[in-house]
Amino acid sequence: MSLSVRLAPSKSWISNLSWMDTGFVYLVNHSVPKEKIEEIFVLSKKFFDLSMEKKQLAPHPPSGTHHRGALPEVWPVHWPQQLPGYSAPGVEKISQHIYDMDELAKNRIKAPDVKESFECGREEDENMPNIWLPDGILPGFKETCLDFFWLLYEAELTIWGAMALGFKLPEDYFKAHHTKPDNQLRLLYYPSVAAEDLAKETITRIGAHSDFG
């Protein structure tokens, strides 16, 4: 689906509300430059190519509500949940309607999610501060991530305007509720795995899960 950012969202785009049934769309002609997208993919690869020791210098905290940083390879038994930052392979386990911590632990051991991640957001977030690598480990990492985060936020506001018009509301209706971005930018890496392990369901990539918001 095309979304021109040079003009106000067009009525032809608004009239095509197939995304209301599907739940998501692929957008083209948005405001995020192609070179910026390529830049963040290059930087993401450089980050995940770092040694585990270096990536864990930006650790994801133990709380599942603090989406920043990276997690260690082995989940410490005294950590009830995951935290923001870097997350190593097998540390995370996406679940579907499992709320008991003992059941969550069993589910994680049974078939861990084999992926790595790093999360960050706006610097001014007092409740969820960013967790960055120490200076000198990966020059430009922090600046590039923050630049891309704000580029996506500008595109987000354009989409909110289009959605409001689609619901026959004032264009700034949803924007007024998103003046302070509380979402996060997440870099993901899925290491190579054996096809037979996926077939036997001893590991997963990302399982069925529930998002609450």
UniProtKB/TrEMBL annotation:
Q: Any idea which GO molecular function terms this record carries?
A: metal ion binding; oxidoreductase activity
On the tree of life, the source organism's domain of life is Eukaryota
Query: Keywords, A to Z?
Result: Iron, Metal-binding, Oxidoreductase
For whether the record's keyword set contains Metal-binding, the answer is: yes
Every copy of the Non-haem dioxygenase N-terminal domain together lies at: 20-69
Database matches in Gene3D superfamilies: B-lactam Antibiotic, Isopenicillin N Synthase, Chain (2.60.120.330)
- Short name of one Pfam family for this protein? DIOX_N
Classification via SUPFAM superfamilies: Clavaminate synthase-like (SSF51197)
Its name, as the record gives it, is: Non-haem dioxygenase N-terminal domain-containing protein
What InterPro entries does this protein map onto? DIOX_N, IPNS-like_sf
